[in-house]
């Protein structure tokens, strides 16, 4: 019931009862809510937020019967603090207002400024007014229920992280919820679906412009149930999001089209998870193939030479057996290194290998590692040059840093042909220690450089030349550097063919 309609009904009731004032109240929790009035005294409306028990209308609600008062000042039923007393009203007559089920929902009252006796015709007019209020109350309740439902629906849709858009039967947008507005960056949404969609930064997954007429919302408006359409949203910050859109028709009970609704799901993370799952499966297969191959070779060597030893003449001199024992020992050592690398990597991943940080001399550590690998360099006729300060103190894990330097040197020796050169340079600032290992080796193709730190990665040259290894050395080296809060990079040798490995470590990590 609108306020103007209630005011007119209050006026008609007051005229029928020949009263100065008319008022219609509805129950609102523990209070009465003024919904209509005619010639109300000054200040009367401001006094409506009072408990029902402090009003004359409360007597009607408590008893369920009409209340007729000829003189307010002489009637004990009028509460001392009732609003009618405060505004100078002297007589009162009120009837209960009921809903269609007979429950009392409010009161319809008339009042005057002088004591008087209410005539039967006047009370009949008041009763008629109260009866007429029933239809208005039913309409008001229906509007309030609809309003609450609409507010609930709108709040629910606005709070969803899933995007929702809806249009009417003519294709005009009637709803685009908060999630979708924020995702598309369109606060003002108006016009038709086609007009709105033409300005959206959407493409197909292949990057082609979208066909606006084939949008799921428009297909659903035509009666189709459109599911699974996939788009790419290009955001202003340069990022992209994958969206799945489903469209559903909205029809009446008789099948008449009322419009359509589209639900937009952001599946970016799900797609990434699927991609990671595929990469994981591929990496697992590569890992099994690689490790299987790398394990098979030393196991085969060991098995073959043990078999030869077993078949040899017991009377054979030891000098004939020693080469086979040495070959089996080399296979065993290769197998041990592979297993240790795998266990080391697993321990890093699981966090079972915390650093044992102490103050160390990086220059001395590098010199010692160069000395330990010197024999391999000599065998390949490689020249190894080392330069830097005699001492370079920093805080780090000596065992892990030795492992790091050794891994980088081993790579340089392995991939540098005979007669080449390896240059090891140590330098420092007040806060940073730097290590450069530059070789004149085979080099790394540009397209392979982003993958050199990937686990089990082995380049094309490695495979072609059948160079032994599991592709774990640089992966573990990077983990060690990162645990020390440092950075490791691999770039081409700037002087000639080859590779430069550059490592920076904070001298006093936080």
Automatic annotation (TrEMBL):
<keyword id="KW-0418">Kinase</keyword>
<keyword id="KW-0902">Two-component regulatory system</keyword>
<dbReference type="Pfam" id="PF08448">
    <property type="entry name" value="PAS_4"/>
</dbReference>
<keyword id="KW-0597">Phosphoprotein</keyword>
<dbReference type="InterPro" id="IPR036890">
    <property type="entry name" value="HATPase_C_sf"/>
</dbReference>
<dbReference type="InterPro" id="IPR013656">
    <property type="entry name" value="PAS_4"/>
</dbReference>
<dbReference type="GO" id="GO:0005886">
    <property type="term" value="C:plasma membrane"/>
</dbReference>
<keyword id="KW-0808">Transferase</keyword>
<dbReference type="InterPro" id="IPR003018">
    <property type="entry name" value="GAF"/>
</dbReference>
<dbReference type="Pfam" id="PF01590">
    <property type="entry name" value="GAF"/>
</dbReference>
<feature type="domain" description="PAC">
    <location>
        <begin position="227"/>
        <end position="279"/>
    </location>
</feature>
<dbReference type="InterPro" id="IPR029016">
    <property type="entry name" value="GAF-like_dom_sf"/>
</dbReference>
<dbReference type="InterPro" id="IPR000014">
    <property type="entry name" value="PAS"/>
</dbReference>
<dbReference type="InterPro" id="IPR003594">
    <property type="entry name" value="HATPase_dom"/>
</dbReference>
<dbReference type="InterPro" id="IPR036097">
    <property type="entry name" value="HisK_dim/P_sf"/>
</dbReference>
<dbReference type="Pfam" id="PF00512">
    <property type="entry name" value="HisKA"/>
</dbReference>
<dbReference type="InterPro" id="IPR004358">
    <property type="entry name" value="Sig_transdc_His_kin-like_C"/>
</dbReference>
<feature type="domain" description="Histidine kinase">
    <location>
        <begin position="290"/>
        <end position="509"/>
    </location>
</feature>
<dbReference type="GO" id="GO:0000155">
    <property type="term" value="F:phosphorelay sensor kinase activity"/>
</dbReference>
<dbReference type="InterPro" id="IPR035965">
    <property type="entry name" value="PAS-like_dom_sf"/>
</dbReference>
<dbReference type="InterPro" id="IPR005467">
    <property type="entry name" value="His_kinase_dom"/>
</dbReference>
<dbReference type="Pfam" id="PF02518">
    <property type="entry name" value="HATPase_c"/>
</dbReference>
<dbReference type="InterPro" id="IPR001610">
    <property type="entry name" value="PAC"/>
</dbReference>
<dbReference type="InterPro" id="IPR003661">
    <property type="entry name" value="HisK_dim/P_dom"/>
</dbReference>
<dbReference type="InterPro" id="IPR000700">
    <property type="entry name" value="PAS-assoc_C"/>
</dbReference>
<protein>
    <recommendedName>
        <fullName>histidine kinase</fullName>
        <ecNumber>2.7.13.3</ecNumber>
    </recommendedName>
</protein>
